[in-house]
Amino acid sequence: MSEAIKKLRHLRYLKLTVDLTRLPRSLSSLYHLQFIIYSNAIGRSCSDDFLPGDVSNLSNLRHLELPRNVFSSVRGIGKLRLLQELNAFNVKNENGYRIGELEHMSELRKLKIHFLENVMDAREAHNAKLFEKRKLTDLFLNWSKTVNEWLLDRGVGRLRNIVNSDLDVNVLENLEPDKNLKRLSIVSYKGACSAKWMDNADLISNLEYIRLETCSEWETLPSFGQLPHLKSLYLWNMPKAKRLDYKFHGNDKVSVFPSLEVLSMKGLQVLEDWFDGAGAGAGAAAYDCFFPCLTELFLDNCPNLQELPYLPPKLKNMHIERVGWKAPLNCKQGSNNCGGISKSIPLERLEVHSCSNITYLLQADARLEALRKLRIGGCPNLISLGGLLQVESGIEKSLRELTFRGLESLQFLLPSMERLASLKILRVGRVPQLQQLLHIPASLEEIHLEDLESLQCLPTSLSAISSLKELRLDSIPLLKSLPDLPSSLCSLSLGSLDNLQCLPSSLSAISSLVLLDLDSIPLLKSLPDLPSSLCSLSLGSLDNLQCLPSSLSAISSLVLLDLDSIPLLKSLPDLPSSLDSLTLYKLDNLECLPSSLSAISSLTHLEFNSIPLLKSLPELPPSLNSLSLSGLDNLQCLPSSLSAISSLKRLSLDSIPVLKSLPELPPSLNSQTLCKLENLQCLPSSLSAISYLNRLELTNLPLLKSLPELPSSMTSLILQSLDSLQCLPSSLSVISSLQNLELRSIPLLKSLPYLPPSLCSLAISNCHPKLMKRYKKLSGSDWHKIAHIPEVKGVSIERLCGINRAKPKEEAASSASKGGRSSRALAFEEEELKP
């Protein structure tokens, strides 16, 4: 950005939408500037000098929207007295960065302070005078870096390793805000108690949002239960917190958390009772009404927390995980000020995970008339879902999704499950005692069944579910057969069905089926005719399948065919002309490919891997974009038509031991990898004419003695394990786009040509010892050839030659002086030829 911006002397608003490395230095002379918005700032970091060093002279600035790390570089930010938001003030113990900079910033509405451990004492904290900032509504106090901020605030402060609990308490006490504050967040505070101002009902009465996180020593939580406007409360990772609420002194109100809508508690390991009192929910029961407005409740890793006597009356979303509750959930309320007697709440989503003590989910008279999604997992002692489907429960009209996973004691899902007329998704997994599914709802659209070791059959009514679109069966070892499948299916996935012997013949009539995936069905010997609607067909680990149906060629919509680990398959039928991707892997007995392969004009991706008997390839279609050949032990040559494939971008050849030469290569290539071609002696001379090639990797080509001239378009060249290569082409020096060069395990390579100035990274290892000597930093005779490269990595001569020499006394003494570190650690230090 041009320094000429200084001519815009009356500029008040500046918004930048382009990528910049830094702003012009003259920006700090635009004294009327009020807004600087860098719209590319979200989720990014910039260099420390992104802003001019004297940007604090812009005394009229009201709004700065920049990456968080940029704020930490502004010395004397307190001069910006009109600033309304400060999203990252990082406290340092040096002039211009102390917390006292905030003293006169009275216009602040939003303030985030990090590294409060750098505040020296209570007096220094008091100098920030937060209590005078009457417009401040959002305050974030952080005593250290959080995980998400670690990468963004580079090089500022440190992770806490020395904690002064009393100092933290005194600092927090002197960061008292004005009573207009609405949002308060405190992170990594190590005090054992709250500040006195947090127990002042009048001072914090306007709070709507509170977040306390990673406050590991805090035992007694403030009196939040009577805050009249509090809507969101987050308590995370507070392992010593014992109770959720203490009433304000002299306050006899009976409603607890009267306006709270969202409560999230995570990692409160010793929290037992919700409120004052003893025993399971005794404290909560003492109140006439609690959580009257709560709609979302999230509890995670609170193993000692007692049950609520009943669920809040307006609760819509509930997620409990790793909670020690035992009693079933109760929706029935006694007579209270929350609205009288009721057995129903508007709960729409209920998730229960990893709660090992729960045996019954709900009380028998519970009514969840609005429940849409129910997920239960990792509850090994759950034996019943309670009254979930009792008469007039109302759930049969609302439930859309039902997921059970990891319920070792559950023998039956739900009685009369066919009554769930609105159920769309059913997922059941790891329920080992489940032996049968009876009368599943006709409304289902997705069924996923997996890891059901006792299930022997599927309901015959499956074929009548006219809305079913997706069926997935995995790891059901006792399942021997499938019923007829509904004609509405779009996706069918079958895996690890050890006793399934055949597929239903009606499969061919499912005109809507577009995806078929069969994997690990060892007894399956043949396939029925496949539906003509298929777009994707994947077959894997079918140990007894000997052939594919001849009708495969007639599936005009098939675009993806993936065959993996079918050892008895000897040949393929003609393939459909619609294919876009063909992958063949581990076909031990396949000897040839259909000649019709060349006629598939839509094929763009072709991959053959581990087909040991394949000796030749047919002509390839001209539409290919990617070709990968690997593990072809008997392939002797590639088709000559390869050079005519003008659309080929990527070519990878790996582990083809008898391949001796390559045909001319197509000029369209941009990436080429040749690996473990033990008999390849040379590369085609046409390589230099491939004007789009930007990446070339040659690995384990033991007979390759020289390289042809290389194309000028390359950006990356990787050469590794080339036992016979003695030199690099001189044209390497004129490849002006080359950025990365790796030379590893080339024992005969003694010298390098001049390298292009564009090179950013050079790695050398296990080459000839003379090479390392010639390019040794500063003293090597050819050091000047690589001195311009920012990153150069290599290895010591001893390791690269395999010479075991005794360390000289001086080297041994040097190692000892480095604190006795391992030789491995020192070897890594030696890899840097240039700092």
Q: What would you say this structure looks like, in words?
A:
This protein has 835 residues and is mainly beta. The protein is 6% helix and 20% strand. It is built from nine helices and 34 strands. The longest helix has 9 residues, at 165-173. The radius of gyration is 35 Å and the shape is flat. It starts with 12 loop residues before the first strand and ends in a 5-residue tail after the last helix. The model is unreliable at 146-160, 278-283 and 795-835 (pLDDT under 50).
Keywords:
835 residues; mainly beta; three-stranded parallel beta sheet; 9 helices; 34 strands; disordered C terminus
Give a concise summary.
The protein is mostly beta strands.
Topology:
Blueprint: E1 13-16, E2 35-38, E3 63-65, H1 68-71, E4 85-90, E5 110-114, H2 122-126, E6 138-142, H3 147-150, H4 165-173, E7 183-187, E8 209-213, E9 232-236, E10 255-256, E11 262-266, H5 282-285, E12 289-290, E13 296-302, E14 317-323, E15 349-353, E16 373-377, E17 401-405, E18 425-429, E19 446-450, E20 470-474, E21 491-495, E22 515-519, E23 536-540, E24 560-564, E25 581-585, E26 605-609, E27 626-630, E28 650-654, E29 671-675, E30 695-699, E31 716-720, E32 740-744, E33 761-765, H6 769-774, E34 791-793, H7 797-801, H8 809-817, H9 823-830
Parallel strand pairs: 1-2, 2-3, 4-5, 5-6, 6-7, 7-8, 8-9, 9-11, 10-12, 11-13, 13-14, 14-15, 15-16, 16-17, 17-18, 18-19, 19-20, 20-21, 21-22, 22-23, 23-24, 24-25, 25-26, 26-27, 27-28, 28-29, 29-30, 30-31, 31-32, 32-33, 33-34
